[in-house]
Amino acid sequence: SSNPFQRAQEDEWRRRNKTVLTYVAAAAVGMLGASYAAVPLYRLYCQTTGLGGSAVAGHSSDQIENMVPVKDRVIKVTFNADVHASLQWNFRPQQTEIYVVPGETALAFYKAKNPTDKPVIGISTYNVVPFEAGQYFNKIQCFCFEEQRLNPQEEVDMPVFFYIDPEFAEDPRMVNVDLITLSYTFFEAKEGHKLPVPGYN
Amino acid sequence: MSTAMNFGTKSFQPRPPDKGSFPLDHFGECKSFKEKFMRCLRDKNYENALCRNESKEYLMCRMQRQLMAPEPLEKLGFRDLMEGKPEAKDEC
């Protein structure tokens, strides 16, 4: 025969166990929700801070229309050209460097020639050094990421139309960056091969 | 250089251009405008700001010959070069 004190104690224990179980379940659900929310939250964080070289939101033609050049912040942009070993094109930049300011659109030219006697399709990717400056380097139009077919003995100009975001001048990490190198690499496009957009990690 | 291995934490994610790729100028239709632009760059010590008229003319040539999607020049960053827009007004 249990006494009333013992029964009250058991009820108290049972109530506390329920409370603990409720908190543990809530924590588990919260962690699950936080893990789902982490991807959009991290993307939002990267967009605002620019960490990791992620795309910065807000780039559009309207922004280009209203950009104000930062004329006292001159940046030297140098150009580099590479071809993969199996691609027999001659590919080179047509200017060694240009001097640009953030917020001003700029044009530069590469030249590619197919010296072989059969048509060759090339596809290019690009790299920006230093990497942190890549987030501010915006290409309006160029020749990358699309197949470019050069007929035998054909030589073409390949323009790059780009600008450096005016926010470049406000970033304290960019204070010492006054040289940006733009590198393009052409690869041969094989028939039927699906080329993924490359990333360097 | 673009094929260098990147050890450590640095990462670079290439992004496609805003308006895609230029069509190839197979027949060199805008070659003379490019040569004028390159000559200007060499004469002006490769300062882009001093050759923006020539780059505007090159892009206009491409638009006229269906080698580029037509676009108002203001949206290509040439608002200050448009006629009838004095410099003082832009700075207001």
Describe this structure in words.
- The complex is a heterodimer of chains A (201) and B (92).
- Helix content of chain A is 27%, strand content 31%.
- Chain A contains three helices and nine strands; from the N terminus they run ααβββββαββββ.
- Chain A starts with a helix and ends in a 13-residue tail after the last strand.
- The mean pLDDT of chain A is 86.
- With 92 residues, chain B is an all-alpha fold.
- Chain B has a domain at 31-81.
- Helix content of chain B is 34%, strand content 0%.
- In chain B, helix 1 (31-43) runs antiparallel to helix 2.
- Mean pLDDT of chain B is 78; it is low at 87-92.
- Chains A and B meet through helix 2, strand 3, strand 4, strand 5 and strand 6 of A and helix 1 and helix 2 of B.
Helix/strand layout:
The complex is a heterodimer of chains A (201) and B (92).
Chain A: H1 4-49, H2 61-65, E1 75-83, E2 90-93, E3 97-100, E4 106-113, E5 120-129, H3 131-134, E6 137-141, E7 148-150, E8 155-164, E9 179-188
Parallel strand pairs in A: 1-9
Antiparallel strand pairs in A: 1-3, 2-4, 4-8, 5-7, 5-9, 6-8
Chain B: H1 31-43, H2 52-64, H3 87-91
